[in-house]
Design brief:
- By secondary structure, this protein is α/β, with parallel strands linked by helices.
- The chain has 14 helices and twelve strands.
- The strands form three sheets. Strands 1-2-4-3-5-12 form a six-stranded mixed β-sheet. Strands 8-9-7-10 form a four-stranded antiparallel β-sheet. Strands 6-11 form a two-stranded antiparallel sheet.
- The chain is globular, with a radius of gyration of 25 Å.
- Bound molecules: zinc ion.
- Zinc ion binds near residues 109, 137, 174 and 199.
């Protein structure tokens, strides 16, 4: 009895001694977060200019030349140090500020979607340049978000002499999942403590644990045969196109016997030259998707076998090349929980009537039966998706990073919910007040989470405890590329060569027009009556 009472007094005395210090630190962090949020608000104009500029470039993966030039120039202007060309990818770069630990990396994708050129703010299909690529996913918004967040935090680091390093990096060619595994392989993140990734969505949110969706390997199979006159002496030719078609039909039969969680799809990238010449060369490009590494590997091996079979049947020679890969995603629990607290304090943007009118008109246009408009309620903190409930879906090569260090993905509301994705409709909001407000909200949550990581060493430690002792306890990262796999820097070159000069006429000039909508002369919103 007496002993317990003494202990209670000692505990009380101890907590009295430490409480004011802890309270002081919390108050300081709260003030820094408030200042960062204010700083982000003051940069709303810069955010809008960056979002609109990158939208107007509309570049595809590996060809993000204007985008990378523009974004790195912005970062250099604000005192970040830039290096370029990582992993032999010309449009890759890293921008850093500060020194020492912790090293907090901020990433987001920068590439667009083929055939998705679209006037922003117009609730029906209306391309800027017919047939050209565009931001039919909304990847023009993520790096502007990170840049604004990083500048806001940098100012506080300078003012309060906070140690640590900020590192910004772009998801080059995410739509081809063709850079992040290479960045990991080549050590881009070797000093990074935590990676805060951002991806556009329809709400402000974050989750942890094994995610839904798939990982994948993307492989192009090339067959080589022999030409001959298709009418005069067809028996003397060996058709590479026959091999492509046989592989493809073989795969369609195989499909019946694949797991329900799998996804696979292909395009023929070379079908020969002209009908009267037996095709000597032909190629088919497959995506093999599954929800875990062993099943992706098995699917890939099945594909290679089938290509070998097609080569045997046609007496052609087969070679293949990995063009992309994405690991299934797993996000860090302590960091996601900390970020979610910040998300709750930021809340959703206030949408105008014009914003909601555009969203509902587009949802109606694309056949969404309910037309819910834009999100007005925050979602819950995302939970792990158990394997038995994962029915497959899309991939993102952030998965490769997430298996190498604590990583989360902040989703921010710069797009309209309920769209098919990889489509012109996903570009409609991407250079409008919807995108601009979503970026400002996301940048605040991002900046506050960086401040948490810079100020609380225990958060970084807990993140690594989860990474080492929970996430990677039973499964270790086993990449699909080897040290010799080259990045596919040739992809999309021909498409940009075809369209760039037409697209250049529509690049955004912020010195002449307040917004890109103004430059294009679009009344916001433009909807069908
Ligand atoms: Zn994406």
């Amino acid at each position: 009895m007496k002993r317990a009472a003494t202990l209670a007094i000692v505990v009380a005395a101890l907590s009295m001694a430490t409480a004011p210090l802890a309270a002081q630190e919390n108050a300081r962090l709260a003030q820094q977060k408030a200042d960062a949020a204010k700083g982000v608000d003051e940069m709303a104009k810069l955010a809008q200019e960056m979002v609109d500029s990158v939208f107007s470039f509309g570049e595809l993966g590996m060809q993000e030349v204007e985008t990378s030039r523009y974004l790195t120039a912005q970062l250099e202007k604000f005192g970040f140090k830039v290096t370029r060309g990582q992993s032999g990818i010309p449009t890759a770069w890293v921008a850093t500020y500060g020194s020492g630990k912790p090293v907090i990396a901020l990433g987001s994708d920068i590439d667009g979607i083929p055939q998705s050129s679209q006037k922003p703010g117009v609730a029906y299909h209306d391309p800027i340049v017919e047939g050209a690529p565009g931001h039919g996913e909304g990847h023009n918004t993520g790096m502007p978000l990170n840049i604004v967040a990083a500048i806001a935090v940098k100012r506080i680091m300078e003012r309060d002499k906070l140690p640590g390093t900020l590192m910004l990096w772009p998801g080059v060619a995410e739509e081809l999942v063709a850079s992040k595994a290479w960045f990991v392989r080549d050590g881009m993140f070797k000093d990074v403590d935590v990676n805060l990734f951002t991806h556009v969505g329809g709400n402000l949110g974050v989750g942890w644990g094994q995610q839904g969706g798939t990982g994948l390997v993307s492989i192009e199979f090339t067959f080589e045969g022999e030409t001959a006159h298709s009418a005069g002496a067809p028996w003397r030719g060996r058709s590479a196109l026959d091999a492509v078609e046989l592989m493809n039909i073989g795969w369609q039969y195989k499909r019946e016997h694949l797991r329900l969680s799998h996804r696979s799809h292909s395009v023929i990238t070379n079908g020969g030259d002209q009908p009267n010449v037996v095709p000597r060369n032909a190629s088919i490009w497959f995506y093999f998707r599954e929800i875990d590494q062993p099943n992706i590997k098995s699917l890939m091996e099945t594909g290679i076998k089938m290509a070998e079979g097609a080569a045997l049947m046609t007496n052609t020679k087969m070679t293949y090349r990995i063009l992309g890969t994405a690991y299934p995603r797993h996000f860090n629990k302590p960091v996601a929980e900390a970020m979610y607290e910040n998300i709750k304090s930021v809340g959703l943007p206030v949408w105008s009537e014009a914003d909601q009118t555009l969203a509902k008109a587009l949802q109606k246009e694309i056949g969404n039966p309910t037309q819910p408009g834009l999100a007005v309620k925050l979602g819950e903190l995302g939970q792990p998706v158990p394997e038995e409930r994962n029915n497959g879906g899309g991939s993102d090569d952030i998965g490769d990073i997430s298996w190498n260090m604590p990583t989360v993905t902040l989703s921010y509301p710069s797009n309209i919910p309920g769209l098919p994705g990889h489509n012109w409709s996903s570009g409609i909001a991407s250079a409008t007040p919807i995108a601009h407000k979503g970026v400002v909200a996301g940048a605040k949550a991002q900046a506050m989470t960086i401040l948490d990581l810079l100020s609380k060493p225990e958060l970084v430690k807990n993140a690594w405890d989860y990474f080492n002792n929970v996430q990677t306890k039973e499964h270790k990262y086993t990449p699909f590329i080897t040290k010799d796999t080259p990045p596919p820097t040739h992809l999309n070159k021909a498409i940009l060569e075809k369209y760039r000069e037409q697209m250049r006429k529509f690049y955004y000039d912020p010195t002449k027009y307040p917004t890109y909508l103004d430059q294009l002369g679009i009344k916001y919103p433009t909807v069908k009556q």
